[in-house]
Design goal:
alpha/beta, six-stranded parallel beta sheet, about 35% helix, three-stranded antiparallel beta sheet, 11 helices
Length: about 270
């Protein structure tokens, strides 16, 4: 797309957003790239972030799997502990602030639906009651068995990780009820033990909010096609969609605007037109 065509598309997107009374912000892994977070695109990108797993030829679905907490807990918590530390220290990029300003300008504000487990929207100032984390959160724990439906904050767990080896060096967190190893409250591959009650409560709040919004616009950022949870959520709203994705901006039959840009660049450029 030529630059003047991109400018025209951004202007149309800004006009849609300006006319809305509420925003549904749908975000995938690409939203975090401008904050310096990896998006694990393909085995090559994943192994670059975790060389020890690359040497073992372990794909993302091999390590993002509850079986690891049974079979090799120091490796499983080495991976998730490293991510927990990374997300705790990552500063959300300026695009989050732009979205927060837009939300505050709308009569019904905004709701976030994200597949990201990193908690970046909360760190950026979005109220927890206005966020759905459809795959759970790394900042919350559950029993790995599980012995109950309990979910609790991970704040007390301070992982000490040998990053090159992807191994946890200190003791992993334990379930306060049965003493078994705890795991992140994240939906993993081949995961029959994920406790979904926290995400289900978030989804119920979203549905109640959605029923009040009459002129909804969906802003989707960095949502991939391999695990299309976020893209499907965007498309089934029956509302105009602003899809921001440098690699997959096609609308797939939805009505709206596709912008082949990164999240931060697109938001900055739209902000100048609002």
């Amino acid at each position: 797309m030529l630059e003047h065509d991109i400018d025209a598309a951004i202007a149309r997107a800004a006009a849609l957003i300006a006319e809305s009374d509420g925003l549904l912000i749908c975000a995938g892994a690409g939203m975090g790239v401008d904050s310096g977070l990896p998006d694990f695109r393909g085995d090559a990108g994943f192994w670059k972030a975790y060389p020890a797993l690359g040497a073992a030829r372990m794909a993302f679905h091999d390590i993002a799997n509850p079986a690891g907490f049974r079979n090799d807990p120091s490796l499983a918590w080495g991976f998730y502990g490293h991510r927990l530390r990374l997300y705790r220290h990552t500063v959300p990029h300026a695009g989050f602030g732009i979205l927060l300003e837009l939300a505050r300008s709308k009569p019904h504000g905004a709701f976030v639906f994200t597949s990201n487990v990193d908690g970046q929207f909360a760190r950026a100032g979005f109220a927890e009651a206005q966020v759905v984390e459809c795959h759970g959160s790394i900042h919350h724990l559950q029993c790995s068995r599980p012995c109950s439906d309990a979910i609790w904050p991970a704040d007390a767990f301070l992982p000490d990780v040998d990053a090159p080896a992807c191994r946890l060096l200190n003791a992993g967190p334990c379930c306060p009820r049965c003493g078994a190893l705890a795991r992140p409250n994240i939906l993993m591959f081949n995961d029959s033990g994920w406790i979904a009650s926290r995400t289900e409560a978030q989804s119920a709040r979203l549905q109640a909010w959605r029923a009040r919004v009459r002129k909804l616009v969906v802003i989707e950022l960095g949502a991939g096609v391999d695990v299309p949870s976020v893209r499907r959520m965007s498309e089934r709203q029956g509302a105009p969609l602003v899809r921001i994705n440098p690699r997959a901006s096609q609308l797939d039959g939805a009505q709206g605007i596709g912008l082949a840009l990164g999240a931060l660049e697109a938001l900055k450029r739209m902000q100048g037109m609002l």
